[in-house]
Amino acid sequence: MRRIPHLALIICIAAWAAGIARADGLIIAPHPHPGPGQPYAFAPLAVKYHHVTVTITDQVAVTEVDQSFYNPTSARLEGTYIFPIPAGAQIDRFAMDIDGKMTEAELLDAAKARQIYEDIVRRMRDPALMEYAGQGLFKVRIFPIEPRSEKRVRLSYTQVLRQESGLVEYVYPLNTEKFSAQPVGSVSVKVALSSTHDLQSVYSPSHPVEVRRPDARHAVAGFETSNARPDTDFQLFYSTRPDGDVGLSLLASRNGDDADGGYFLLLASPSVRLAGEQIVQKDVVFVLDTSGSMADGGKLDQAKRALQFCLQNLNAGDRFEIVRFATEAEPLFSRLAPADADHLAKAAAFVKELKPIGGTAIEDALAAALAPAPGAGSPDRPYVVVFLTDGQPPSGSTDEKQSLDRARAAAGGRAVRVFCFGIGTDINTRLLDRLAEETRAASQYVLPSEDIEVKVSNFYAKISMPVLANPRLEVSGPVKIAKTYPTALPDLFKGEQLVLFGRYTGSGAATVKLSGSVNGRPRTFTYAAEFPARDAAHGFIPRLWATRRVGFLLDQIRLHGESAELRDEVTRLARLYGIVTPYTAYLIVEDESRRNVPVTSRTLQAIDGDEKLVTETRRRYKEMKDESSGAGVVGGVQSNSTLKQAEVVSAPAEANVHARKGYAGAAAPESARVDQAISAQANRFIAGRNFFQNGSQWIDANVQAKPGARRVQVKFNSAEYFDLMGKHPSMPQWLSVGRNVQVALGDTVYEIVE
Questions:
Q1: Least confident of 508-517, 541-550, 677-686
Q2: Which residue among 101, 197, 203, 603 is least packed, with the fewest CB closer than 10 Å?
Q3: What are the φ/ψ torsions at residue 349 (nearest 5 degrees)?
Q4: How far, in Å, CA of 463 to CA of 609, rounded?
């Protein structure tokens, strides 16, 4: 292969830097015109697009990277392309656009030493470069990079993935936020999984991936976005070890300094190869609001199409009923009818003729839906109610407790699941949420700008095939679990997985049992698990647990009333883990500012300088506690739901987006400004800890909990600085956040200063 001028490769490995956070490939170039006597300032070029294609076959992963960089300056530059190499990975290909043609490079070995790495850090004077030494560095000098032109780079490497606790982990470095000169135009990651054994769980804690399963041994997981600054490495777990019909996998995270114990994540996945007789036969009642307001915006037409989809996806052996309600409730069959061709044809004709007219008799509709039927709600036949409405109970029937009591009486103690869909903003969210909560179901809300048909159809596609009913979780051995979320385990469905977060005390080998019923017959799935006394490898678990708990607590406040204990717990978790809540913002404005708390001690930067933002924050706070309907309330409910169901570390930001979309009318601009102001507060969650920025400082949230701790100042880039990194496995990651950092370690707060 012809050697390309100005192209060389160096792989740098620092033996002690195995745990340092990583970042994706970028080109660093010096500023072309440094001032007199000034050293060259290094800065990354803009990333136009970043596309990643991964093929994984039986734990062997081939990663192909396609990146395009843009030189926005008027000068010809010489740059350095840097890419982190996973441990044990083999570079297969490196190619670069030269004069419009992709040209292959010859790969040359180079010495690997700690001295090289430290020299890079000290010479560049940029701690961010430490993030590139996770296991090694692929480093290529590139010249020329023409002014206002693009430079395309293609790279591929092969690695063998490790397996832990039955899960295989794949990580791609996608942390670009602080390195890209501007938002990345297009980012995508596509992972194709293939295994000689059945695939069980497929889960990403870092990104909201879409997973397709063409068959039992293949899956495709994908993520894409545009005009973004990715700040989290892409992480994917999958399991191939079956455990009966349900695969169980468990990961744990525990800091030895945490006296409250550790955190765990449990994944449970029904087999994708269940025989027909293993699919639980169910009874379904579809309850559809046909009041006059459903004519607005074509809501009823969308709901009718969604209902037709649900009817078409009933399984053989299922029974069903349809109840339409407006001023009064009208059932179609007045019984549970078999899902055969004749009854489905009658149902389709009934749905087609539905018209929007009349009031909203919610209580009558619920009573009709829950009317006793032979065998309905028995252990071997789940009883599911899909309830769609855009309104509130009529005047005189708005007592939520009364409505709930009537629903309980109609259910008659049977195992009933009431899934609620609120359409629009004039709905009683508390009533619908409590109905769903008390029946171990879920509620969703469709805003005027959202597609009812898509939401309902997607939901029903997930619940159409129940596999394990009434699941229960037990852990035996030297370990106790607590504060698990979701608090009540939902039924498990084919193609779906249970994602459960919780706390644990004790350590060592334990037995995890997941029990439930399949077609009325009890089933138990057993998994041998190890709960470590110390393990910092899965730092995402604590924040996801905290996010779910905050969502749960906020819902308790909204549905059942506020208490000092709930308020204080939300505030503590929000500060410690960097989660935005109405309480967090309110306390910043009302509490910290009033009490003259120093800036260095605040969790988030205050917004008290803008009275309009303060007013809007107070309005949100009041709505969350006191209201049950309205655009703001629906937005808040969607936000809480996002927190309660958080499966990726971006959940707090996603919750903000949901909340912002929920506010309408004249207050919308201020609502958006609140979200923008709060979202702009710089904070990063690294290796299990939240760091927030105040001025030039990055402060570990744990520092606030140790006001009397001993403080030690350490000069950035000194010998003591590098020695400190060896005191804790996560210290290099924590210190990579900046040059001025406060971090708590044991009973000492270390202050890194320039």
A1: 677-686
A2: 101
A3: -65, -40
A4: 48
Using the predicted structure, report yes or no on whether residue 385 has a pLDDT greater than 60.
Answer: yes
CB 389 within 8 A of CB 362: yes
pLDDT exceeding 70 applies to what percent of the chain? Answer: 75
Please answer whether residues 32 and 77 qualify as being in contact, where contact means their C-beta atoms are separated by less than 8 angstroms: yes
Determine the angle formed by the axes of helices 429-438 and 540-560, rounding to 10 degrees. Answer: 120
Position with higher pLDDT, 149 vs 129: 149
Q: Cα separation of 580 and 607, whole Å?
A: 13
Q: Specify the 3-state DSSP secondary structure of 527.
A: strand
For residue 58, give the DSSP letter: T
How far is the C-alpha of 439 from the C-alpha of 416, rounded, in Å?
A: 6
- Phi then psi for residue 266, to 5 deg, are -115, 130
Segment (H or E) for 678 = helix 668-679
Sheet of strand 466-476: strand arrangement: 492-493, 466-476, 508-518, 521-531
Number of CB atoms found within 10 A of residue 405's CB? 11
CA dist., res. 177 & res. 736, Å (int): 13
Of the listed ranges 157-166, 223-232, 329-338, the least confidently predicted one is: 157-166
Q: Are 150 and 68 in contact (CB under 8 A)?
A: yes
The 3-state DSSP class for residue 266 equals strand
361 pLDDT more than 90 = no
Chain position carrying tokens 């350490």: 714
Q: Name which of 470, 474, 337, 335 is nearest 414 in CA terms.
A: 470
Residue 750 φ then ψ, to 5°: -95, 130
User: Please, which pLDDT band fits residue 22 given cuts at 50, 70 and 90?
Assistant: very low
Q: To the nearest 5 percent, what fractions of the chain are helix, strand and coil? A: 30, 35, 35
What's the confidence (pLDDT) of residue 477? Answer: 92
Q: Residue type at 316?
A: A
Residue-wise DSSP of 619-636 = HHHHHHHH-SSSHHHHHH
Give the pLDDT mean for 226-249.
78
DSSP one-letter code for 2: P
**Residues 6+ positions from 585 with CB-CB distance below 8 Å:** 604, 607, 617, 620, 621, 674, 678
Burial of 618 from C-beta contacts in 10 A (0-12 / 13-18 / 19+) = middle
Overall size of the chain counted in residues:
754
Tell me the two tokens of residue 226: 């545009």
pLDDT for residue 351? 93
Domains for the chain: give ranges and CATH numbers.
Answer: 9-221 (2.60.40), 246-276+467-531 (2.60.40.1230), 281-464 (3.40.50.410), 560-681 (no CATH), 689-753 (no CATH)
Preceding amide of 486 cis, omega within 30: yes
CA dihedral 729, 731, 733, 738 (to 10 degrees): -170
**Token reading at 474:** 């037990």
Q: Which two tokens stand for residue 139?
A: 């480093």
